[in-house]
Structures are given as structure tokens and as C-alpha cells.
């Protein structure tokens, strides 16, 4: 049976858990429209990605 050799200190425990925090999603300002959007994602309002039209824009319902 596995038994720990010694107690894990608060510092070592905290260092291990340092990467467990949830990161906030990143947003960038669009060059053309000036609105915030996710990087490397298609802008659904305009249908543009990297300066090219990929999709038809979403119709306002």
C-alpha cells in the first residue's frame, strides 16, 4: 500500500494547485468593426475570418 514519506507542506500543496485556476476567456478588439470577439474565431455578425468572407451574416430576427 502506498504511504506518503512525509507531510506535504502548505507551500508545496499551493504550488501544485497553482495551475488549477480557471482562466478568463480572451477577447480582442476587431479591426474592422471595433467590437470585441474571440481570437481565431469567425465573427458571426459579419461572417468574416482573417479578412475573408466565410459565412453569410446572421439575419437579425
What does this entry look like structurally?
The chain has 61 residues and is α+β, with helices and mostly antiparallel strands. The chain has a domain at 24-51. The chain contains one helix and four strands, in the order αββββ. The protein has a two-stranded antiparallel sheet. The protein starts with 9 loop residues before the first helix and ends in an 8-residue tail after the last strand. The model has no long low-confidence stretch (mean pLDDT 89).
Which structural traits does this protein have?
alpha+beta, 61 residues, two-stranded antiparallel ribbon, 13% helix
How many distinct helices?
1
Sheet of most strands: 2 strands, antiparallel
Order of helices and strands: HEEEE
Q: Please report the total strand number as a whole number.
A: 4
Q: By helix and strand content, what is the structural category?
A: alpha+beta
Q: Hey, roughly how much beta strand do the residues contain?
A: 5-15%
Task: Give the C-alpha Rg.
Answer: 23 Å
- Low-confidence segments, ≥5 residues, pLDDT <50? none
Strand order of the largest sheet: 1-2
Distance between the termini: 63 Å
Kindly state the percentage of residues in helix.
10-25%
The best one-word shape is: rod-shaped
Question: What layout of secondary structure does this protein have?
Answer:
Elements: H1 10-17, E1 28-29, E2 36-37, E3 48-49, E4 52-53
